[in-house]
Amino acid sequence: MTSGLGKLSARQRALLERWLPGASVERNHSWGLVETTVLEMTCAGARFIVKAGGDGDHHIERELQAHRNWLAPWTGRGRAPTLEHGDAEAKLVVTRFLPGVLVLGSEHAEVASTYRQAGELLALLHAQPVVIDDDYERRENEKSVTLLRGAHRIAAATVERLLAEIATWPAPAAVLVPTHGDWQPRNWLIHNGVVSVIDFGRAGMRPALTDFARLAVQDFRRDPSLEAAFLDGYGADPREARAWHRNRVREAIGTATWAYRVGDEQFEAQGHRMIAEALR
């Protein structure tokens, strides 16, 4: 095992030695704002992606759940990486390397066909068996209230206005489907014109409309033709107006407070903009 593994625990390194004996690190893909280490490695001529979580990590368990329960519609088409090894307790996952470049920051991020394919892929994920959850809306409301009462830089008057609005919201039963949780170009790869999906650390059972949230405040806002292409690929729009508004407010609160905690000022500014737009 070569350099690049310094942030991994002794247990994680031992598992990698067993799973990928003699492997070498080719590239470090870690983001830096969170404690997840992401390494591209080679072993016996094959390429892998290794993700290792820190002590407070909750993403690896979600990633493994997604691989084991929800990704077959994508992996069966070669549109998502396949799971090779995983240990939720050790917070370690190994997948086969998927070729391609990130859509984010590339010319493909402005091309309608990219979004049409992304819509088609998301529809495949959402088409799996649903769950009716009578308590989902109440839980999400409580999460937003907790965030607003925690550490952030949202103006006090805005906090009071948000709390007052959330107190009026209904809590109807919700239809939940497998969702990616961070559906946007930074988690799409493209190779020979074909879009694939990576990063399942926020995967979970949620309403389908939640996977529209990141695109709506970024890419669709920038170019409505990308939204049209996405919906052409996805099919019927699941964003019922009242539920969509509640989700927009929750996403805005979550963005502003999370970005503040990790020190991402640009993303925090986006969160404050999202709050202002949602309240309008």
State the main characteristics.
alpha+beta, 280 residues, Kinase-like_dom_sf, Aminoglycoside 3'-phosphotransferase, Chain: A, domain 2, 3-stranded antiparallel sheet, 2 domains
Mean of residue pLDDT values: 95
- The CATH superfamily of the largest domain bears the name Aminoglycoside phosphotransferase (APH), C-terminal lobe
- Tell me the distance between the termini: 54 Å
Q: How much strand content do the residues show?
A: 15-25%
Low-confidence stretches: none
Strand order of the largest sheet: 1-2-3-5-4
Strand tally? 11
The general outline is globular
Total discrete domains = 2
What does this structure look like?
- It contains eleven helices and eleven strands.
- The chain is of the alpha+beta class and 280 residues long.
- The protein has a five-stranded antiparallel beta sheet, with helices on both faces. A three-stranded antiparallel beta sheet has the order 6-9-10. The chain has a three-stranded antiparallel beta sheet with strand order 7-8-11.
- Helix 4 packs parallel to helix 9 (224-234), helix 5 packs antiparallel against helix 6 and helix 10 (241-262) runs antiparallel to helix 11.
- The mean pLDDT is 95.
